[in-house]
Amino acid sequence: MSEPLIRFHDVAFSYGPERPVLLECNFRLDPGQRVALLGDNGSGKTTLLQLIVGLLRPTSGRIEAFGKPRREEADFHEVRRRAGLLFQDADDQLFCPTVAEDVAFGPLNLGKPREQIRQIVAETLDSLGLAGYEHRITYKLSGGERRLVALATVLAMQPEVLLLDEPTTALDGRAADRLVEILAGLPQAMIVVSHDREFLGKTTGSAIRLSGGRLEESSD
Amino acid sequence: MKHFPSISPASDASSPIDRVDPRLRLVAAVAVSVLVVLADEFPVLATALAAAVAGVLFSSVSWRVALGRLLPLNVILLLLVLLLPLTTEGTAAVVVGPLAFSQEGLRAGAAIALKGNTIVLTLLALLGSMDAVTLGHALSHLRVPDKLTHLLLFTVRYLDVLHREYLRLRAAMKVRGFRPRMDRHTYRSYGYLVGMLLVHSFDRSERIAAAMKCRGFRGHFYMLDHFAFSRRDVPFCVASLALLSLLGWMEWR
């Protein structure tokens, strides 16, 4: 079996002693795998995604990503580049005034040359059917457009893994269908958090469930 | 969706002035405003006002918009023009019953009114059609501290989000029968509303910071767009320098 992209060894996390969220989570994501992450509200799904990219640190346990153990902030700089997290609320993710600047923000931080960045911006927007959106103002976009632009900002980093946190919230049926189509065409491994069974059925191959702070295989 | 008129440009049509490099427009607007504030001679102020009016005619800002922006200013200025002659000592120009309007006061009031209108018209003509984003970038290129320009840009970006959050909370209050009255319940509810907005904004800022970190942010912003001087900017440069020299010469010759 090939090396896993992400691996959790007995990871536990709590927001203070009264609020344990995860207890001994074990899990691995292999290349090309598309996993649905299920669980009730407040069961720690978003927390788990944030642990992967190092926005939160485990209280105990070990996290491995892309073949290396990750502990310090500096370890996670590389993880954040290679694993793209799509936030629940696109308004949190789109903070630049124009679409082009927002998509360029990640590549600029990676220190890519400007000419290459323009090309990345154009190609990324084009691949999502957003060609010509470069100079649109992010806060004037519709909910569906916002979600796709947020996805574009993540894809512009050219990640190997996508972590999608409830990507269909606030999307109407048509926008959700478009997202399904786009995700089906992407090569990345994915972890998708969603309550939308139909969407998960179309985008993921297997499912795990968070319940009582532990991860278990899910048959549905 | 409703947007704030205050952060939308005063016009979106294209005029000769709109094609001038935004940095140049910003510098010219600041220079003219400073000179007008310092000037004291009436011919200078009148010339500057005439130039500002000409500027508005050249720009894509309509007269309806310009007058709309001047109205609130002049209401305040009117008060000042009425009160200054009463409080400034000097030779009485007009005496109405027990009230003596002094010449010096009238002169000072008129000068302030002229200056105020000139500056507002200048800013409208030069910056009125500029959107906040361009303004922010221009400021940043002019070496205004990053923190200030980022504050401006983040404000522009999130004002609308905050406003929507406010409207949602207001709607939630309304559907439960809240009507503002002059009582403690109303004040307390408004307090909760403002407090909630603050808490939400704080949470949101944390999430935005997290999202920025995920995309490799380590404390420095990079700009994608660059402005460039072009030959089109030369006439504007010459005209503003000529106006500034003329005003300076008239004032301090």
Give me the count of strands of chain A. 10
Rg of chain B (C-alpha, Å): 24 Å
The number of helical segments of chain A is 8
Instruction: Output mean pLDDT of chain A.
Output: 90
Number of helices of chain B: 8
What oligomeric state is this?
heterodimer
- Uncertain stretches of 5 or more adjacent residues of chain B: 1-6
Largest interface: A-B, 34 and 27 residues
Strand order of the largest sheet of chain A: 6-7-8-3-9-10
What is the 3D form of chain A? Answer: globular
Task: Summarize the main sheet of chain A.
Answer: 6 strands, mixed
Low-confidence segments of chain A, ≥5 residues, pLDDT <50? none
Determine the strand fraction of chain B and express it as a percent band.
under 5%
Give the strand order of the largest sheet of chain B, numbering strands 1, 2, ... along the chain: 1-2
Largest sheet of chain B: 2 strands, antiparallel
Number of strands of chain B: 2
Structural class of chain B: mainly alpha
- Element-level helix/strand string of chain B: HHHEEHHHHH
Q: How would you explain this protein's 3D organization?
A:
The complex is a heterodimer of chains A (about 220) and B (about 250). Chain A has helices at about 45-50, 75-80, 90-95, 100-110, 115-125, 145-155, 175-185, 195-205; strands spanning about 5-15, 20-30, 35-40, 60-65, 70, 85, 160-165, 190-195, 205-210, 215. In chain A, a hairpin with a 5-residue loop joins β1 and β2. Chain A is about 35% helix and about 25% strand. In chain A, α4 (about 100-110) packs across α5 and α4 (about 100-110) packs parallel to α6. By secondary structure, chain A is α/β, with parallel strands linked by helices. Chain A has 8 helices and 10 strands. The two termini of chain A are about 25 Å apart. In chain B, β1 and β2 form a beta hairpin. In chain B, α3 (about 65-85) packs antiparallel against α4, α5 runs antiparallel to α6 and α6 (about 145-175) crosses α7. Chain B is flat. In chain B, strands 1-2 form a two-stranded antiparallel ribbon. Chain B has about 250 residues and is mostly helical. Chain B has helices at about 20-40, 40-60, 65-85, 105-125, 130-140, 145-175, 185-215, 235-250; strands at about 90-95, 100. In chain B, about 70% of the residues lie in helices and about 5% in strands. Chains A and B meet through α2, α3 and α4 of A and α5, α6 and α7 of B.
